[in-house]
Amino acid sequence: MIRSTLRTPWNPAQPCPLPEHPRPQMQRPEDLWLNLNGPWDYAILPRRRPAPQEYQGQILVPYPVESLLSGVQKRLHAGQRLWYRRTFELPPHPAWHGDLKRRVLLHFGAVDYQCKVWLNGIPLGGHTGGYLPFTFDISAALTGGSNELVVSAWDPTDRGMQQRGKQVLKPHGIWYTAVSGIWQTVWLEVVPPVSLDRLKLTPNLDEGSLTVEAELLGREQAHDGRLEISVEAAWQGQVAASGSGPVDQKLKLSLPDPRLWSPAAPHLYDLRVRLLQEGKPLDEVTSYFAMRKFSLLPDHSGHLRFALNNEPLFLYGPLDQGYFPDGLYTPPSEEAMLFDIEYTRRIGCNLIRKHIKVEPLRWYAACDRLGMIVWQDMPNGGRIDGPAVGFLALRSGFQRDDTRRLGRFGRAKELNREEYRAELKGMLDHLHNAACIAAWVPFNESWGQFHARELADWVKGYDPTRLVDHASGWFDQGGGDFVSRHIYFTRLKAPVHDRRAFVISETGGYSLKVPGHVWDEKRKFGYRFYNDPSALMEAYLGLLEDEVKPLIPGGLMAVIYTQTTDVEIEINGYLTYDRRVEKMEAETLRRLHEELIAYGSSYRA
Question: Where on the phi/psi map is residue 547: left (φ > 0), alpha (ψ -120 to 50), or beta?
Fold first, then answer.
């Protein structure tokens, strides 16, 4: 493990990093939640050993233990367990005290990979999976004064077959430093005994409506009183629609002439949802939503084109890994997180492919607000089919059947496949309300791939509001909405057409080393190397003008370029890994990208 000292320009807020509310689409007032980020005690012990009597130092939560910003920067091996401890007191606000019926919830944004939690010595439970949030009701375990919270985390990284993205214990090439333990915000929230637990917001642009579904916590305590939700949508402070109905039924708001969301005009409606019992308020949350539609439409030649709000839109933007040299999976600050999205907009892109990672909800909220369309990958597990097979797949289009010999994909065990399905569903549920997400990507380049066509059909049925790239890059099984190609070593070319749309879901990888701004001065990885910015710019212009544009008349509807920033020894970003150097002039990139998007969007029915 490289103990790199490479830093971005941003520093964590002190004493509480990432102090912003972690759930933008379901917020209660500021005095009803408490951020637990900050210094915790930590210890790394053999996996089977019980909780430590003494801790080894302090770690800055929520930065993973391997990161520079954690203050630890140690690798967690598969035979070890990471322990955390901190104490806290409840805020003095009356809502947190005096009412024994109130609930206090402990939320974890994400912990990689398998964790257990105790409060005041009382086991609360555990969670498995490194990318999704989970919650405990800690009301019964609280004391009136100081409370001790203990968390343990075990993470086998690439010694296991669980979903882990690009994390490995020995980074190389396109495989990066592992991320173990807590890596998203930990926080407390006080809620009524019967409260709103989850909202599902589904716009229907063609009929001008928003469907609202609510799930409750503690419904059994409502007894026989009728429960309703009351919903109010507002545009710039003015009520645009309202309605109410039984909580166990879908509520539909009518918005016959809605303000549409797009990259050019990312309009968002405010939403207020109240839970009522016999007309009396029990709970209230604020949220937002967007009226938009993602689909495919045939052009005058019959080629399917991506359509936003029933209008063709060519998509172009970078692959985005979501890594930082100092925080790894966790951005140093909100400003650092926003920087990558804002830069992508500044260079004229309208698309980000979020690659093999689920970001904190604030990242998607920023894309909603800034008008950035997102293709969302499912983090991969299992294994890749081998470098030789991968080279064949990239160079010659070699294919494999993913319904047999599943051991080669690391998916031989049904329990492993069931864990993947459960986490895929969890991701779809968790991110359903993100207005920016236009497509789901269940598998990438064969990593842990199995039954991709069947899973694509399931995803399409479960979320018909979005498109599906079922097997991005390799081993196309004929499913989903796209013929999806990764092209690095040859000139771009169109595939044999079938009923699906054509997208180049990875290409480029043009690399330039900027000394003093790299993770490792001695190693580098990329697909084509250039010695200076002018050579890189010339090659990039050639890619767009000579290879991308000629494919658009034949049906090419989207291109994803590798990538936003360098990541560790992979030096093919628009930006250096520390975000301090732009390798190509931003205004030139903006002009090129806007011209390309306008040209690609001109192909209509």
Answer: alpha
Q: What are phi and psi of 486, to 5 degrees?
A: -105, 120
The CB density around residue 159, as the number of other CB atoms within 10 Å, is 13
- Residue 317 in tokens: 């933007």
* Cα atoms found within 13 Å of the Cα of residue 444, Cβ hemisphere only: 23
Give the bridge partners for 221, in sequence order.
Answer: none
Residue 474 tokens read as 């390799």
Q: Give residue for tokens 């990958």.
A: 377
Burial 6-23 (b: 16+ CB within 10 A, else e): bbbebebbeebbbbebbb
Query: pTM value?
Result: 0.97
Long-range contacts, stretch 359-364, CB < 8 angstroms, 24+ apart: 359/322, 360/22, 360/109, 360/110, 360/184, 360/185, 361/22, 361/23, 361/24, 361/25, 361/109, 361/430, 361/434, 362/20, 362/22, 362/24, 362/334, 362/337, 363/322, 363/337, 364/431, 364/434, 364/436, 364/437
Residue 386: predicted pLDDT = 67
Positions in the chain short of pLDDT 50 = none
Distance between CA 595 and CA 459 in Å, rounded? 34
How much is the pLDDT for 141?
96
Residue with tokens 């991709």: 452
Residues in the chain: 605
User: Are the C-beta atoms of residues 426 and 398 closer than 8 Å to each other?
Assistant: no
Residue pair 150/83 in contact by the 8 Å Cβ criterion: yes
